Amino acid sequence: MKNDIATETKKTPLYDEHVKLGARMVDFAGWIMPIQYEGLKEEHFYCRNHVGLFDVSHMGEIRVKGPKAVEALQWLTSNDVSVLDEGQAQYSLLPNKTGGLVDDIFVYCLQKNEDYLVCVNASNKDKDFNWMLENNKGADITDESSLWGQIAIQGPEALSLCDKIFAPIKVSALKRNQIVTGKFNGHSIMIATTGYTGEAGCEVFVAAPGTAELWRALLNSDPKAKAIGLGARDTLRTEMKYSLYGHEIDDKSNPYEATLGWAMKPNAKDFIGKTEILKVKEQGLKHKLIGLKMLERGIPRQGYELKNADGQKIGWITSGTHSPTLDEPIGIAYVDTAYATENSQFFVDIRGKMVKAHVVKTPFVNKT
Amino acid sequence: MAFHVPEDFYYTKDHEWAQVDENIVTVGITEFAQDQLGEVVYVDLPEEGQKVTQNQTFGVVESVKAVSDLFAPVSGTVIEVNSALIDDPSALNDDPNNEGWLVRIEMDSEKELANLMRSPDYKKLISEK
């Protein structure tokens, strides 16, 4: 039985906080979420220049425990879980049996060989959980999504804010992709130095009843954090060319074509879909995910086709927007590999008009 | 939020306004529309001389987030285009009822005005949103 009846819109523990802040709320993956507060552009720049707070409580948390935890995760995911020591995290993929992707995920090692947390996309949570159960190798897999709220704290002032709020934990001393556990006002927290904006910062899992308390503490501190909606979350990640499931990747995407080969460790182990994924690579990749900019007026948007000078379809846009930081249109697209090199030119079909574009280096915005 | 909804304008359900001066109709987007869109970063407008049809698309406005079609409030011929918006669409957010006007249309038949809303009905429409 599928969860077809689950049409009711869910609220995160921060729903009342968003309403209090005057957010414009929208339905997103079955959740009622803030799309923006003051304005997308203001929020985008506040995160790039100061520190932004994102309610990401809708994301799923799946716990994988027990002596078979590593064996199960090695089979389910594309990256090598065995290299993770306690407190380390890695980006990874859940491949399907036909060489496409069930989801992209983060795997956090809470206790080596024993206890792992998998953070998954909200829109895929039930699908992922069922998939993991169906393909389990004897681990103890539970859906903890309703137990955790999650707040992302991102921006150049994020770490000094976190050091203050989470003292004595020194978040600024952590390397990228680490996780530490602790308490905030008695509520369990896990602080992960990960993010989806390209900025310094962290994502904090907090026991659901403590989420609003933490949110308010972060908003009322110095440096002053501001709430950032899903609108700016999308422009921030697009400027970094980070993949979003349903845009850059889906159940048909090959990880190498999606330029996620770095999250594949086929020499380290066997895993679901490995043979099928490698077969596509060996036969030669047909497409490659690239970043593009327009050489003529127009904004690329998801679903627009790319065409060559002869009018043949050579690719499609997966995400596109007007970059607030660069103040110009940017796009992410799959393009035939023959056109995937930097400065390679083609046309974006914008409502029937052929508008010239070319391949550029990514990330679009450099945050090093 | 209170939006200024001039009483002498006509309105479409898609949030365009139409100001009628004999057979010339000036068209724009409403304050409510600009607020929903957020900052407009791109505008696509028809050429002068182009025919437009009531309720059909005649152009596009884009914010960072979204693409929105513009629908013609009346059928007719475009006689003037606010080309200043092409380079700088900020008037669409700052002053949508005046400086942010989009096109002027010479309308074919004023009978079509009967299909449009007047300000009390339009105010009611946006208050329900």
Q: What does this protein look like?
A:
The complex is a heterodimer of chains A (368) and B (129). With 368 residues, chain A is α+β, with helices and mostly antiparallel strands. Chain A is built from eight helices and 19 strands. Chain A has helices spanning 15-20, 40-49, 69-76, 125-134, 158-165, 211-219, 230-239, 274-282, and strands at residues 24-28, 31-36, 52-55, 60-65, 89-95, 101-111, 115-120, 140-143, 148-154, 179-184, 187-192, 201-207, 226-227, 287-294, 305-307, 313-323, 328-336, 345-350, 353-360. Chain A is globular. The N and C termini of chain A lie far apart (47 Å). Residues 1-5 of chain A have low confidence and may be disordered. In chain B, 19% of the residues lie in helices and 34% in strands. In chain B, a hairpin with a 4-residue loop joins β1 and β2. Chain B has helices at residues 31-37, 84-87, 91-94, 119-127; strands spanning 10-11, 16-21, 24-29, 40-44, 51-52, 57-63, 67-71, 76-81, 103-107. Chain B has one domain (10-127): RNA polymerase II/Efflux pump adaptor protein, barrel-sandwich hybrid domain (OB fold (Dihydrolipoamide Acetyltransferase, E2P), Beta Barrel), CATH 2.40.50.100. In chain B, the strands form two sheets. Chain B has a six-stranded antiparallel sheet. A three-stranded antiparallel sheet of chain B has the order 4-6-7. Classes of the chains: A alpha+beta (368), B alpha+beta (129). Chain A binds chain B through residues 35-36, 39-41, 231, 234-235, 297-299, 301, 321-322, 324, 329, 351, and chain B through 38-39, 41-42, 44, 60, 62-65, 67.
Label this structure with key terms.
heterodimer, A: 368 residues, alpha+beta, Gyrase A, domain 2, Alpha-Beta Plaits, Elongation Factor Tu (Ef-tu), domain 3, 3 domains, six-stranded mixed β-sheet, six-stranded antiparallel β-barrel, 8 helices, disordered N terminus, B: 129 residues, OB fold (Dihydrolipoamide Acetyltransferase, E2P), six-stranded antiparallel β-sheet, three-stranded antiparallel β-sheet, 9 strands, globular
